[in-house]
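Form 7-S
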Amino acid sequence: MVAAPNDGPTVARGQFRGFLSVDKECPPTYLAVRGDLPDWLTGTYLLNGPAQWDLPKQSYRHWFDGLAMLHGFRIGGGRVRYQSRFLQSQDWRESHAKGRPELGGFDTIVAGGLVSRLIHIMNPRRSDNGCVVLSRCDGQWLAVTESDRVTRFDVESLTTQGELTWTDGAKQPLMSAHPCVDASGCWWNVGAVLGPTCQYVLFTTDRTGRRNIKARIPVKRVGYLHAFAMTPTRAVIWECAWRAHPLRFLLAGESYSRHFDWLPEGGSRLHTVRLSDGAVHSWDAPPLMVFHAAQAFDRADDVALDVCLQDIAVVDELQIDRLRAGLPSGGAVARHVRFVLSPGASVAREETLPGRFELPQVNANAAAKGAVRYVWGATASEDTPGAFFNRTIKVDLLTGEVRLAGSNDTVSLEPLFVPHPRGVTESEGVLLVHTLADDDPGSRIRVLDAGSLDERAVIELPHVIPFGFHGAWSAAAD
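Output:
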């Protein structure tokens, strides 16, 4: 697919205004707060996501593609100070200079023709538009996307601080957008090497960009790589049935997503890597399309992996013009599934779990010790089939109870869980939820009690924040 010339964005109304581009940053501004913010909630709520899909000469096609904007909400003493800044990546600079997407995106091609691709064949041009995840590595903050190009930024001012350069020089054109940080603070990620024999590469790194390779997993064709999971003893990598075509990545004039083929007949594979020695074990699984895992944990000799299992149709359903028009999508109600990986078995055992949702959240402190009881996420109510996210969900994995909060006229995105610093129970804390209702003049950050889902406070913005994907919490002590 080739991005069409920009004839102006689709007109979005009501709650779908969150899919419209913005072109201005917001300087530090104090926001109105309704209700009572918890006294212990002191720190910075960070949001990341695409914010600019429309450039003068050409537009991006997909929700995942827009140029990234960082948002910071400094919370303390019952007050909230907000600011936003564009992530000034190479992609942002070059695309603004040319007035069109230069380094492409999930469903937008890289500018230039065959000659340009041949010139860059040994080092293909790939985007550093870190619009997906904000992650802390060795004391510095990073904006991450699905390539191996990672951008540093300052958490206080949100200013861009340049690219994290890999000192080993090895190219991993695909990389998980969701790094994992273990209990010791070590930053882990999985990259993919494309070639006659493809590989998944599990590695750790520090602020110098020196990668320490822990394991390599050879495969015929790597699957779409958005995230992976970790237990205290193992990394868990899922091999989606949406598989990359190595030569197309090098030579074809297509977007990132068009370099993949949906090949359900080959099924999928689930791999574990033992952190102590890099030993790899693998299991067959049904054809998977997965963005996110809710958790992974050790259970005696088994490993359990809980994922949000998508339909491949979600890729096209999240085209930006479809979302602006409010057309149906099933992405909000991904199936909640557990795969149990047992020694001696060759096939993963599948178990259905309660709840259908995406953008899962758990108490990370509890997850570091083993299986969690509670999972939160974003979903759509049963009476609004095909709707975008309009509910916050809480799932009790012990009792099977499912609890919802929200309304049909409101988009409710990822519920970021912030634990009470002196909390005793797993659900003691709050959820920070970016929302936008039909009648709201601007976006709202709802502060919900994580246990009951009751609203404790609402942070009000005078303008709309474009809909993004993930948030992060930087506690004041950090």
